[in-house]
Amino acid sequence: MALLEISDLSKSFRAPDGTTHEVVRVPEFRLDASTQLALAGPSGSGKTTFLHLIAGILPADAGRIVLDDREVTALPEADRDRLRAGALGYIFQTFNLLQGFTALENVLLGMSFGPGPDPARAEALLKRVGLGERLHHRPRQLSTGQQQRVAVARALANRPKLVLADEPTGNLDAANAGDVLKLIRETCAENGAALLLVSHDRDVLAGFEHRASLAELNRAAAPGNLTPA
Asked: Are 87 and 159 in contact (CB under 8 A)?
């Protein structure tokens, strides 16, 4: 069953010289519930923009995005925010943790935009990602890999149906990257969440049964173009 369906999606930006550059043009795309898909593309190819459009962070110029039977592109901003808080988890490359708050508080704050803080679940998630002894550490007291683990826990806090991961291993060394990627995939599977991950790292992409490139999305004639590589 399709969790995410996209049709005729486009987004352009105006350059300083006044020219318009189309960054995303996706005729058709779908992602089924619980599916894990890796999307490849070099820096600047529009991968992050694509995720931001799905999340409702950016408005589309044209097209239709339906997530969990709700049309994201037809919702006013406040409703997009509520849908994102409940149905989506987002793992940012730069973590986006609040530096003045502990690991536990960062996860609880993420919950406050959804059904509400649940200290027991927040603590359980942090223990699941290996931070049971770091609940009350602030980001600056954590390693880069540990900060990304907090971001993973926060993304799953509201039991999302879809997790978006934007270059989640981009700031990690090879050892941490492998551990965090495994963690993301395992915790999404355990929580029944679909995963759409973007990366330019060949090693990351190679581990996914389902993978595609942004170029393939942009010329896709049917969802069948996004079958296992």
From this structure: no
Q: Is residue 78 part of a domain?
A: no
Using CA atoms, how far residue 91 sits from 10, 18, 123, 187, in Å, is 23, 33, 18, 13
Q: What is the DSSP letter of 223?
A: G
Structural domain count, the chain: 1
Q: How confident is the model at residue 219 (pLDDT cuts 50, 70, 90)?
A: low
Residue 177 structure tokens: 């990257």
Calpha distance 48→71 (Å, rounded): 20
More confident residue, 221 or 164: 164
Radius of gyration of the chain, Cα coordinates, nearest whole angstrom: 17
The two three-digit tokens of residue 127, written as one number? 């223990």
Q: What pLDDT band is residue 222 in, cutting at 50, 70 and 90?
A: very low
The C-alpha atoms of residue 29 and residue 190 are separated, in whole angstroms, by: 25
Asked if residue 14 is part of any domain, the answer here is: no
From CA 162, how far away is CA 2, in angstroms rounded?
11
Q: What predicted TM-score, i.e. pTM, was given to this entire model?
A: 0.88
Q: How far apart are CA 44 and CA 130, in angstroms?
A: 33
Provide mean pLDDT across the span 38-60: 89
Residue with tokens 């962070």: 57
- Can you give the CATH number for the domain in which 102 is found? 3.40.50.300
